[in-house]
């Protein structure tokens, strides 16, 4: 796991890096540390980060300026901040966890252990890069999500698409539990499924409420049936 710590207080940065190294264990790449938004942007642009640990107050710079951009990235973000009044706002951008300062080693370890699992609080929007900036796409406007290599295409209910830099695997970890992977290439909201329908060659598809049909992977059919029967 490749970590990037964005923290402007040297003592706090060293402690966070030390605790992360202890959690990662021997042989893991050491966390990289930077103190400014510009330096963080440069490192994130290298696409060599799995998890961003971000403080929200960086020598007067607002970490939310980076958080909005980070939410559109392919990595996961954990906020480590004393600004607990901003936790809900951060979660709405899709952070994996919000660790309030002062924190214990156990609380930090819990946040890191969540990497690869569903976010601590369900997100309501997905951030995507568009027109040189970042826009927030409400999840309620997404009909389904289709894999596009290392990216994912958000197919919108009103027509059109938006491209997310996050893969289907990463989105599966971040999205609310009512989103289900029905195929290696598709994520759908369970409540949007009208029915299962037989397809060619003993295959199965889901029909959504708008009439769209998407294939169901054979290995995923059992889980899907249980969710629909629940």
Automatic annotation (TrEMBL):
The modification 4-aspartylphosphate is found at residue 55. Pfam families: LytTR (PF04397), Response_reg (PF00072). PROSITE patterns: HTH_LYTTR, RESPONSE_REGULATORY. Residues 126-230 form the HTH LytTR-type domain. InterPro entries: CheY-like_superfamily (IPR011006), LytR-like (IPR046947), LytTR_DNA-bd_dom (IPR007492), Sig_transdc_resp-reg_receiver (IPR001789). Transmembrane segments: none annotated. This is DNA-binding response regulator.
């Amino acid at each position: 796991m490749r970590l990037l710590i964005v923290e402007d207080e040297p003592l706090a940065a060293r402690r966070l890096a030390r605790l992360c190294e202890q959690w990662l264990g021997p042989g893991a790449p050491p966390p990289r540390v930077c103190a400014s938004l510009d330096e963080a942007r440069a490192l994130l642009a290298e696409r060599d980060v799995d998890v961003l640990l971000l403080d929200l107050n960086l020598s007067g710079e607002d970490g939310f300026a980076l958080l909005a951009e980070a939410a559109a990235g392919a990595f996961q973000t954990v906020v480590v901040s004393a600004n607990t009044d901003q936790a809900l706002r951060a979660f709405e951008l899709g952070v994996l966890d919000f660790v309030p300062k002062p924190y214990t080693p156990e609380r930090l370890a819990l946040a890191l252990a969540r990497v690869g699992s569903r976010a601590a609080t369900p997100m309501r929007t997905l951030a995507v890069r568009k027109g040189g900036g970042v826009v927030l796409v409400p999840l309620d406007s997404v009909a389904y999500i289709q894999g596009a290599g290392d990216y994912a295409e958000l197919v919108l209910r009103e027509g059109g698409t938006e491209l997310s830099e996050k893969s289907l695997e990463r989105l599966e970890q971040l999205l609310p539990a009512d989103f289900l992977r029905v195929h290696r290439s598709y994520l759908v909201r369970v409540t949007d499924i009208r029915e299962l329908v037989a397809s060619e060659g003993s295959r199965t598809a889901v029909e959504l409420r708008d009439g769209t049909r998407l294939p169901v992977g054979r290995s995923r059919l059992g889980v899907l049936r249980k969710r629909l029967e629940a």
